[in-house]
Design a protein that fits this description.
CATH superfamily of one domain: Immunoglobulins
Structural class: alpha/beta
Radius of gyration: 26 Å
CATH class of one domain: Mainly Beta
Shape: globular
Strand content: 25-35%
Length: 613
């Protein structure tokens, strides 16, 4: 028995990818020499019973019987489907295999995402070039007034110091060493960011906090004193906007700091939940034994968890006229990246999203999600991040992991293509173009280090001072050429973690959070990012076009980005041998690790090229 079905080919399934609710999906299954008596399309909405639809035989193509069904999907949600072939004396289920091919007996069902009609992430962000700044470590211009800074803390005099990583005598790592990065320093660097082609700036937390990472919020309504003042933030936003850049803030809403206005572990604020039973904030927290035993984020006692369903908390963060969300959008922010989105309930996310759009309709809401966000299950619950009214997009860790494995020759071109096309099929187009495409973040080792090393030093003392050898650096730079190319030419917003563009190195936190300032970087790496930003910002197919694979074989992956009548061809060579690309008058938009000849281009290992057709 021969069966043909390809969910990514409109000859077999139309339309490609996701549906808008109330749209009709048409599926065509091709069967040859089966002696079948009937075929069923089995569709199940997640958590509900399977519904069977009879597929009518509509004709023949090259000896294959064509069985068709059309189903209108009325409700947004996550759906799964497969097929059942019937015979006189039995039946056979048809699933998909690892490479999306039909297989009888055992396999996985195909996924169909259906999203709400009103799901419209702001198009102005599609394919924008994003730059992530860890505020304390990016750039310092002078020192801000620190009289209201939570103590104890100290500021490095030597900006080349390694961040403190060892615990104190009692085994505690305080994260209270600072380099003094501030808004004045970021403003000073805005022309630099403009030259790099950046049009979106994502800031790690800026609110008053004890630690240098500031994920332990002390006061949501105040900028941390070492960064400046609320007015300084507003000035920064104004200057960024004048240069065509928008600003995304980091919203940490699943927990606060224990040393905060709200919890007040040390009773320095007065009226906090830990010392005042009548505190307006007490019901925000989940005390098991008041006041010292409470639920905290991953057991870290300095990060007490909040009850996001608490009415008072939702009003303070989201709903009040001068809520945290509203206030900072009015001060100049253009959106939010939501920390640990998996830990925020659906109801909280829906209310936050609604408020953000009411306050500033063209603002962006991005969630920190590490897996496929279309079918994510967190804490036993299926999430609905990309079905409308929840998130505009997520951090794209799925493609990050695939790009790194492909660049390190740990993943075949075929498997990489499958990873790319799975998200293209599972995510609404608008969400795809709004993804935050990352290679490094504050939570991961830096990309150059990841690409250059095979054996990670065992001790933190070794990792703190480790730098790539000359040979490792050469390999890492070649791999980075391929990885950064894919980061930019695939759908979404490439997000450059500060310093990656000049070749900063570092393992896990805090070694990935070194001070940048005026560090002398690698000009070759900077030039690579500069050129990639230029084509991303100039060509519509790279900003909002579809992905059409051409082939994936022997380490080489080729695909089109298509938008209307415009299209560009992208090729990458992740293999060990050169690959020849025939040329017939195409415009070369970008190439690296490639040799150009009269009628061909030779892609060396780790080579890449983008051609306008």
């Amino acid at each position: 028995m021969n069966i043909l079905f390809d969910s990514r080919n409109e000859q077999f399934k139309k339309p490609f990818g996701c549906l808008v609710q109330k749209d009709t999906v048409t599926v065509n299954l091709f069967i040859k020499d089966a002696g079948e008596t009937g075929v069923l399309f089995l569709l199940e909405k997640d958590g509900e019973d399977t519904v069977s639809y009879v597929m009518e035989k509509t004709g023949e193509v090259n000896g294959y019987g064509v069985y068709s069904a059309g189903v209108t999907i009325g409700d947004a949600g996550l759906y799964f489907y497969c097929f059942k072939i019937l015979w006189e004396n039995g039946e056979q289920l048809v699933y998909r295999d690892t490479y999306n091919r039909p297989v009888c007996g055992e396999g996985r069902r195909w996924q169909l995402t259906c999203y709400r009609e009103a799901y419209e992430p702001p198009e102005s962000f599609y394919g924008g070039v994003m730059y992530q700044i860890f505020p304390d470590r990016f750039n310092r211009k002078g020192l801000c007034d620190a009289k209201d800074k939570l103590t104890p803390f100290y500021i490095h005099e030597n900006l080349n110091d390694t961040p403190v990583f060892l615990p104190d005598s009692e085994g505690t790592i305080w994260n209270n060493d600072f380099y003094g990065g501030n808004f004045a320093g970021i403003i000073e660097k805005l022309p630099y960011l403009q030259s790099l082609g950046v049009n979106i700036i994502y800031l790690n937390p800026i609110f008053k906090a004890y630690s240098n990472h500031r994920y332990d919020t002390a006061d949501y309504m105040q900028v941390d004193p070492l960064l400046g003042t609320n007015e300084d933030f507003k000035i920064f936003c104004d200057k960024a906007h004048k240069l065509g850049m928008r600003v995304i803030l980091d919203g940490v809403f699943s927990h606060t700091g224990s040393d905060s206005l709200y919890f007040d572990e040390y009773n320095r604020f007065g009226g906090g939940a830990c010392h005042d039973w009548n505190s307006p904030y007490r019901e925000w927290y989940q005390f098991e034994e008041y006041p010292h035993k409470y639920t905290s984020w991953w057991g870290i006692k300095t990060l007490p968890c909040v009850d996001e369903n608490n009415t008072s908390y939702q009003q303070y963060i989201i709903e009040d006229e001068n809520s945290v969300i509203r206030y900072w959008l009015r001060q100049g922010a253009d959106g939010w990246r939501l920390d640990v989105a998996d830990e925020l309930p659906d109801g909280f996310l829906y209310k936050l999203y609604k408020t953000v759009k009411e306050e500033k309709v063209d603002s962006l809401v991005i969630g920190e999600v590490w897996e496929d966000a279309s079918n994510k299950i967190s804490y036993g619950n299926r999430r609905h991040y990309l079905q409308g009214g929840c998130l505009d997009g997520v951090m794209n860790y799925v493609w990050r992991d695939a790009i790194i494995r492909f660049a390190r020759q740990e993943m075949s071109a075929e498997d990489f293509c499958e990873s790319v096309m799975t998200l293209c099929e599972h995510y609404p187009n608008a969400a795809l173009h709004s993804m935050m495409n990352i290679l490094s973040t504050h939570d991961t080792p830096r990309i150059l280090t990841v690409l250059g090393i095979d054996n990670v030093p065992q001790s933190r003392e070794e990792r703190a001072v480790y730098r790539l050898t000359e040979k490792q650096l050469e390999l890492a730079k070649n791999r980075l050429i391929l990885a950064s190319f894919l980061q930019f030419v695939l759908p979404g917003c490439p997000d450059v973690y500060y310093g990656d563009e000049i070749g900063l190195e570092g393992f896990e936190d805090p070694f990935n959070r070194g001070y940048m300032g005026d560090a002398k970087g690698d000009n070759d790496i900077f030039s690579c990012y500069e050129k990639l930003s230029a084509i991303k910002n100039q060509y519509k197919p790279l900003q909002r076009g579809s992905v059409e694979p051409v082939f994936a074989d022997k380490g080489v992956f080729a695909f089109y980005r298509m938008y209307g009548e415009e299209k560009v061809l992208c090729l990458v060579n992740g293999g060990d041998v050169p690959y020849s690309v025939p040329l017939s008058g195409e415009k070369i938009l970008y190439s690296a690790n490639a040799l150009s000849e009269e009628q061909q281009m030779m892609l060396l290992p780790y080579g890449c090229v983008c051609l306008e057709k």
